[in-house]
Amino acid sequence: MITARSEERLVKPLPVEQHRLQMIRARSKFFFHGGQKFFVRGVTYGPFPPEGGIQLPSGEKRARDLQMIREGGFNLVRIYHVPPPDFLDDCAREELRVLVTIPWEQHVCFLDSKEIRAKIRESVRDSVGKNIGHPALLGYTVGNEVPSGIVRWYGAERMEQFIESLVDAAKQVDGLSMMTYANYPSTEYLLPANVDFFCFNVYLHRQDELERYLARLQNLVGDKPLILGEFGLDTQRHGQEEQARMLKWHVESVNRMGLAGTIFFSWTDEWYTGGHLVEDWKFGLVDANRKPKKAYRELQSLFSIPLKLHLTKLPKVSVVVATYNGARTLEACLQSLVDLDYPDLEVIVIDDGSTDHTPEIVNDYPMIRYIKQPNKGLSVARNVGIAAASGEIVAFTDSDCIADKDWLNYLVRTFESGNYAAVGGPNISPPAHDRIQACVAAAPGSPSHVLLTDTDAEHIPGCNMAFYKWALATIDGFDPVFRKAGDDVDVCWRLLQGGFRIGFSPSAVVWHHRRFTIRAYYGQQKGYGEAEALLRFKHLLYFGATGAAKWKGEVYGVPRFSRWLARPIVYHGIFGMGLFQCVYPRRESDFVHIVSSVEWIFVTMAFVLLAWKVHELWAVAALMAICTLGVAISYGFQAKIETRFSSLRSRVLTSFLALTQPLLRGWARYSTRMKEKRTPHRVIYSKVGLAEQVDWYRPATLAFWSDQGMGREQLLKMLREFLEQEGWRFSVDTGWDNWDLLVYGTRWSQVRLLSVTEEHGDGKRLTRVHIVPELSVLSKIFTAIAAVITLWTLIRVGYDSMFYVTAVIFFLLMLLYSSFSRRNRIAQIVKVAARRCGMLLLAPIARKS
């Protein structure tokens, strides 16, 4: 928000040297100065003994300090009190930015008093109002390291809300400057939602420990920049050599881990706090007399050239973009790929039968390889890209994405850091064009990464993933059955099942346009539901009873409403004295999944229908509906909507999307399962092979003898070939099931096959095949509902309801007859397959329990 006061400050003529300082903006994980990334290279400055009422040097001493800071390659100073305008002017002349920490009473129980809280907010407003819009300002920290005991006393949620209120108060005064809170590991779980970037003061003096912790912080802060607000080493105890060595690798680690910068504590050994100079530690880059230490010279040399990510190897990377009618965003995507800062890459566009002006757009980029094919689906298009790729690594993004210029550098660095077969990164929504797109971006169901640890992933999104080409060859690439979505999930799960690891780089960013309209969003969610149905029959272990995916890792980007349903666990240390107090998010609440599911809605509707006759059930139906609405409304009012589009209308619309999204996705799952996993009637009722029947009233166990060593392996292979030739739909055991084949009949029933082979010596083998009919999930639901209604009708109505009861029983008998008929049909096919394998059918054998 830009107030009239801030506009007045902005139009005031500035000195010539201040015009060189353009505004620094936060964009996803980085800061930008104009069109270039701005990496914070800062030092803390002061506090110093008071001179003229301010704790800053004056005159030549200040001028010399700022000049040396600039000459050392630094671009920012952090101070711990509100400066006078002339200090910001001096910094502007040296082209230095300033991060101002606003002091207030944070070491006392300040939340107990309404007056103290109001006083703190007013202090923040007054502090920000003194230098509105000054170009030297990077921003403000509205607090610094509130003691962990104070936070624990009040609770994390209440403290977060208070910090957020301070950020809001500051932005009401100056809507241009960025705001943050200076946190530290002892309260790492404090993550205010409305800050522009995150700032942590971290003193970890071992490189491996620091990098592991930075990986954790990067995941906690999500899609906003992260800087370290303080880091340093005491030369009085460790010496200048150790300080120089440590600060050098610190810069390398911060850059390698994709942070937006770091600030060293401190500029000088002269440090004044608590009313006196501190004499028993020396953290400065220069001593109290401003004589440079060795660390200053090392950093000056390091900062004399642009910081780049150091890679020991530079493997060739092939970037594959599969597109179908994506002309609206394709040009921006291709331009970002052409601008990538990576020396050895090729870009391949696979046009999957587009009917728009995609070819004309690609023709403007002659350096890009273009392959056109008929529309065969996303997986086939990506497989074509893999076949055409000449790179050791194959990376994938989508035509509605824009890649950060260092995207490939961070992916390749992560490949180097561990034994990974694949690596991915986050996909972040760019600024929305309107309120609809802002709400769609905040709505549930957007593609996101799932992490097993801070560095290892269970799933990486299809618009931001890379693989060694040999790894894709090992699993035969993408499964063509996934035409719209689900291909990335399937590939990730198959890699993990094969014993490979998938890495995650939080700084390998692509900006992914969310759908521009609600209709397009619903179309996306419908596609995801269809993909889940197909995935379920291939990876049953990963799915719950409703058919929704059940992740083993942590789904990032979920809204904070889960706190009152699955409150995260915080390790505070014994008596709250832990130096590193970690937050451990719990899995997303099962309650949320249940009350939002399409199954829950169907049951609610059933109770509503019953309530017309049995009025006592209105309370049950109403309670079920309230649970569903409550979760959706909670989501909508706590979702991350862009500030400029955040309004009551937007919250209501997001709540509506949160209500309808799981219903649409669930319905798409069921309709796909009923359509795709159902064998056509012409196949089921055709006549094939032997006419001999199996008794319909008992499970069929067939036995086959072979003198040539034929067993279940050959029989199952032949059976699969025969089923495919016939046109049957079926699933094959992936290692997690208690059956070998699951053959789909109608939407009401399916058939399960289990086999075993006995060894009888000299190559003689006996193979048994157990064939069991099963009701589908839909049949079980209908049967349960029919049973409940029948029982209730008999109790309430009595024998007058016999016609209805008879109809239900007839329906159930027909269902059973149909299921056993399907079983007999499959038994015939098994006999034919066995005969083709040269196996002899024995007399029927009853299978014992």
Key features?
25 helices; 849 residues; eight-stranded parallel β-barrel; alpha/beta
Write the topology of this structure.
Elements: H1 4-11, E1 24-27, E2 30-33, E3 36-38, E4 40-44, H2 59-71, E5 76-79, H3 85-93, E6 97-101, H4 114-129, E7 137-144, H5 148-154, H6 156-173, E8 178-183, E9 198-201, H7 207-221, E10 226-230, H8 235-256, E11 261-264, E12 272-273, E13 276-277, H9 294-302, E14 317-323, H10 327-338, E15 345-352, H11 358-363, E16 369-373, H12 378-388, E17 393-398, E18 401-403, H13 407-417, E19 422-424, E20 427-428, H14 435-442, E21 450-451, E22 457-459, E23 465-468, H15 469-474, H16 487-497, E24 502-504, E25 510-512, H17 518-536, E26 554-555, E27 569-570, E28 583-584, H18 590-596, H19 598-611, H20 618-638, H21 648-676, H22 681-684, E29 700-706, H23 712-726, E30 729-732, E31 741-744, E32 749-759, E33 765-775, H24 777-796, H25 802-836, E34 840-841
Parallel strand pairs: 4-5, 4-11, 5-6, 6-7, 7-8, 8-9, 9-10, 10-11, 14-15, 14-17, 15-16, 19-24, 20-25
Antiparallel strand pairs: 1-2, 2-3, 12-13, 17-23, 18-25, 19-23, 21-22, 21-26, 27-28, 29-33, 29-34, 30-31, 31-32, 32-33
